[in-house]
Amino acid sequence: MSKYMLGKFMRAVEMSDARVADYVADPGAFVQTWLLHAGGTDLPTDDRYLTADEQEAFAARDFDALYRLGAHPYLLWHFIEAVYIHEIGWRDLVEQYRAAVSPYGHVDYIA
């Protein structure tokens, strides 16, 4: 598991409207391109890569899986908000997020 890279990927996407749009348009291709260019050249033994499960979760836009894989809840929420806010109303997004991740641990308060 590479929690550092989970966070790095989420921040890279959510900090740019253009990257959010590219990610939403084709998540699988975005993940592969990011790994080739922005993920860095660190060796896998340095824990600086995305595992196959992590890549699959990002490609599927599966926030439930990302949470289970160890994504930081604060970074995950902002990533999910950036990615889904134009598709799902904010209140519905909060409820879906809470329902998806609550079986795996405490969900921080989101008003």
Summarize the structure.
This protein is mainly alpha-helical. The chain has helices spanning 3-14, 17-25, 27-37, 52-59, 63-68, 73-84, 90-101.
Q: Key features?
A:
63% helix; 111 residues; mainly alpha
Q: What does the model show?
A:
The chain is mainly α and 111 residues long. The protein has one domain. The chain has helices spanning 3-14, 17-25, 27-37, 52-59, 63-68, 73-84, 90-101.
Strand-helix topology:
Layout: H1 3-14, H2 17-25, H3 27-37, H4 52-59, H5 63-68, H6 73-84, H7 90-101
Helix pairs in contact: 1-6, 2-3, 3-4
Helicity level, as a percent range? 55-70%
Tell me the total number of β-strands. Answer: 0
Largest sheet: none
Indicate the mean pLDDT: 83
Output the helix-strand order. HHHHHHH
* Number of alpha- plus pi-helical segments: 7
Distance between the termini: 30 Å
What value does the Rg take, in angstroms? 14 Å
| Helix-and-strand structural type | mainly alpha
Count structural domains: 1
